[in-house]
Design a protein that fits this description.
Layout lengths: L1 H5 L4 H20 L2 H12 L3 H28 L2 H19 L5 H30 L4 H30 L1 H23 L32 E2 L1 H4 L3 H17 L5 H7 L4 H29 L1 H21 L4 H30 L4 H8 L1 H21 L3 H30 L3 E2 L7
Antiparallel strand pairs: 1-2
GO molecular function, one term: transmembrane transporter activity
Membrane topology: Multi-pass membrane protein
Subcellular location: Cell membrane
Length: 428
């Protein structure tokens, strides 16, 4: 058995491929959009609120496709689904570079968002859940951290490209780069489940020293989808997803915020790149913390930590050193979206119907985009300042702490009512 434990498992190849795919599509396309806002509004004379409205449209599309995405990936060849998704996302992003009217962003964000749902939101948690029955938290942390490393490279690169090559050419370059890497990576390495390679999930064949029972079946314990969706725990989780996404959405406005306080586009790109390093450290740190003190306590700590950068940006926004410190710490909070969201889902409801519960709760991510991203843009457009936005983010951070506590009180009720099936001890 010792030799089996040392044998390299294909799950690690899946992790590398998923991490690169999610990281490139998210950092190279999805989150890079904020860098383009000010150059586009200045060049085309479009209002910030009007332009950022395309984020709302994208979020509506995301909300519609989230419940369908998991079913589509499970039903069809995952490689074909992800390659088509990449062509939709990359092609639409490149098309932005040809636009002269805000309607172009409104139209092309639709196919871009359909592709993004599969690549940046659903593929990672579902594939890693399929392949890892052990080290789930570590795998998620590595996935998010990899995205942070990629972002640390691509964000400042994108800022420099916009300054040197213009925003139109930068759209073309980023879309082409990401597509050329992701398509062959998906085709040659991604598989939906271990059975497609004649394997068991990582950790499924391990047994306890004092038992003949395989460890894998315990992963099926938890609350059914039917019981979960009616619970206060689910409402708390849904609202947590909504608020943490609203909080993280402020990262799309950090570049305009920096420019509004006297910094140039190159500094903004560098700052956002450094923020990605905060995402790397945060993802790995939160993964380790969740294993040690549980997802609940780690999530509360993450929300409390997020108060620090908001206070810095509120009081001393023009200080370049403190600005870098603030966005780096904020990167920790952003990382919690990809790491703590899935971990809180499994901590609250177990693994019995994880994919269905997570996909439904993740609609909160999309709903937040409908409200928060353009909302911040219009608040800035009306007031000429981001100060009111920062106050809103501070309130959301505090509210999320109470939501986490409420959700776990809801879990306690589920367990006490017998809704937790095949219950095993679950660390909170």
């Amino acid at each position: 058995m010792k030799n089996n434990k040392k044998k390299f498992h294909y799950a690690w190849i899946i992790l590398i491929s998923v991490a690169l795919t999610v990281g490139l599509t998210k950092a190279g396309i999805s989150t890079a959009g904020g860098l383009f806002l000010t150059p586009i509004t200045d060049d085309l004379g479009i209002g910030m609120g009007s332009l950022t409205l395309y984020f709302s449209i994208a979020s509506i599309v995301t909300m519609v496709f989230l419940p369908l995405a998991g079913k589509i990936i499970a039903k069809y060849d995952v490689r074909a689904v992800l390659i088509i998704a990449m062509l939709l996302q990359g092609g639409s992003f490149a098309a932005f570079g040809l636009m002269n009217s805000v309607w172009g962003w409104y139209i092309f964000c639709i196919p871009m968002s359909i592709g993004s749902v599969f690549l940046t939101q659903i593929a990672g948690p579902i594939l890693l859940n399929n392949w890892f029955k052990k080290h789930n938290g570590l795998a998620l942390g590595i996935m998010v951290a990899t995205g942070g490393v990629i972002g640390a490279i691509l964000q400042p690169t994108a800022g420099n490209l916009i300054a040197d090559q213009g925003w139109r050419n930068t759209y073309f370059i980023l879309a082409g780069l990401v597509t050329v890497i992701v398509v062959p990576l998906v085709f040659f390495t991604i598989r939906f489940a271990p059975k497609d390679k004649g394997l068991q999930p990582l950790g499924a064949d391990e047994v306890d020293e004092n038992s003949d029972t395989p460890a894998a079946p315990t992963a099926l314990s938890g609350v059914s989808f039917k019981n979960a969706k009616k619970s206060s725990a689910f409402v708390g989780l849904f609202l947590f997803f909504f608020l943490i996404t609203s909080i993280a959405s402020f990262s799309q406005h950090l570049a305009p915020f920096a420019l509004n306080h006297g910094f140039d586009i190159k500094f903004a790109g560098t700052a956002l790149g450094i923020m990605q390093l905060g995402i790397v450290i945060g993802a790995l740190s939160f993964g380790v913390l969740a294993d040690k003190i549980g997802a609940r306590n780690t999530a509360i700590f993450a929300m409390a930590l997020g108060i620090i950068p908001m206070v810095i940006l509120l009081l001393v926004p023009e200080n370049p050193t403190l600005f870098i410190v603030a966005v780096t710490i904020f990167g920790f909070v952003v990382s919690s979206l990809g790491t703590l969201g899935p971990l809180l889902t499994s901590a609250l409801f177990g693994m019995k119907d994880y994919a269905q519960i997570y996909s439904l709760a993740a609609i909160g991510l999309a709903v937040a985009g409908i409200v928060a991203l353009p909302g911040y843009g219009f608040m800035y457009q009306i007031t000429g300042s981001y100060y009111s936005v920062i106050i809103v983010v501070l309130v959301l951070l505090i509210a999320n702490i109470f939501l986490i506590l409420w959700a776990f009180m809801g879990k306690k009720k589920l367990v006490e009512s017998g809704a937790w099936e095949d219950e095993t001890t679950t660390k909170q």
